[in-house]
């Protein structure tokens, strides 16, 4: 019984063909395509407003050199947001519950920000490993600690996103199973658990949006350190 709770996190396949790529590319089909008309529909206007709002929030802490990353960070934000929200629908698969996928997104972007800093301002980037005014006996230990904290940043990004979404999906499945099991014998308790399930679903919608924003916001902060 306990193993069935984790079946929702297994990668789906059909005739031996993995369907993860379809799950990753499907959110792009939901975005309305833009045309050359001056007057667009309300959905396109809402889409442009949201993209503009997200871009402003992500680019606010960056200088003009970091604005070159606007397209990458905004696209990643919308991609993660749609995948997280679609994963809350019944009988769907959430690719962002896979640690391998989250690390595949976090590690190259973190490495790109690090290499950008080492290329443009190597002394300042290396200066982050040793705070100013450090006593001489503590220099080797602090360099080791700061280097370790720098190297685990992509791991922290991937684990944070995976753990939050996985925990939310497990809680929803556990409470929904309890609601269905209690309904024949204790309808009043079942209605109470149903109310808790609805509140938890609203909370998970907020968590899905916040985690997508936090993932990209931390990348922008890492970029700020290196530009």
Automatic annotation (TrEMBL):
Residues that span the membrane, as ranges: 12-34, 69-93, 99-118, 195-223
CDD domains reported for this sequence: ATP-synt_Fo_a_6
Membrane-related topology note: Multi-pass membrane protein
Domain of life the protein comes from: Eukaryota
Reaction catalyzed: H(+)(in) = H(+)(out)
SUPFAM superfamilies documented for this protein: F1F0 ATP synthase subunit A
Alphabetically ordered keywords of this record: ATP synthesis, CF(0), Hydrogen ion transport, Ion transport, Membrane, Mitochondrion, Mitochondrion inner membrane, Transmembrane, Transmembrane helix, Transport
GO cellular component assignments: mitochondrial inner membrane; proton-transporting ATP synthase complex
Classification via InterPro entries: ATP_synth_F0_asu, ATP_synth_F0_asu_AS, ATP_synth_F0_asu_bact/mt, F0_ATP_A_sf
Main location: mitochondrion
GO MF terms held by the record: proton-transporting ATP synthase activity, rotational mechanism
Localization: Mitochondrion inner membrane
Family matches, as NCBIfam families: ATP_synt_6_or_A (TIGR01131)
Family per record: Belongs to the ATPase A chain family.
Subunit field text: Component of the ATP synthase complex composed at least of ATP5F1A/subunit alpha, ATP5F1B/subunit beta, ATP5MC1/subunit c (homooctomer), MT-ATP6/subunit a, MT-ATP8/subunit 8, ATP5ME/subunit e, ATP5MF/subunit f, ATP5MG/subunit g, ATP5MK/subunit k, ATP5MJ/subunit j, ATP5F1C/subunit gamma, ATP5F1D/subunit delta, ATP5F1E/subunit epsilon, ATP5PF/subunit F6, ATP5PB/subunit b, ATP5PD/subunit d, ATP5PO/subunit OSCP.
Record protein name field: ATP synthase subunit a
């Amino acid at each position: 019984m306990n193993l069935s709770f984790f079946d929702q996190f297994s990668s789906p396949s059909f005739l031996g063909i993995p369907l993860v790529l379809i799950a990753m590319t499907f959110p792009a089909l939901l975005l309305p395509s833009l045309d050359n008309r001056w007057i667009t529909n309300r959905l396109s206007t809402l889409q442009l407003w949201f993209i503009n709002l997200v871009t402003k929030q992500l680019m606010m802490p960056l200088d003009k050199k970091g604005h070159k990353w606007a397209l990458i960070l905004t696209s990643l934000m919308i991609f993660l947001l749609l995948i997280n929200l679609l994963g809350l629908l019944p009988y769907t698969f959430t690719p962002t519950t896979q640690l391998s996928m989250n690390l595949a997104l976090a590690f190259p972007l973190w490495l790109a920000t690090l290499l950008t800093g080492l290329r443009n301002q190597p002394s300042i980037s290396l200066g982050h490993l040793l705070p100013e005014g450090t006593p001489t006996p503590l220099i080797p230990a602090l360099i080791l600690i700061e280097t370790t904290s720098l190297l685990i940043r992509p791991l922290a990004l991937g684990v944070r996103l995976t753990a939050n979404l996985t925990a939310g999906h497990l809680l929803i499945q556990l409470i929904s199973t309890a609601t269905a099991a209690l309904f024949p014998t204790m309808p009043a308790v079942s209605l109470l658990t149903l109310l808790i399930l609805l509140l938890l679903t609203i909370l998970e919608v907020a968590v899905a949006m916040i985690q997508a924003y936090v993932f990209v916001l931390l990348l922008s902060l890492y970029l700020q350190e290196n530009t």
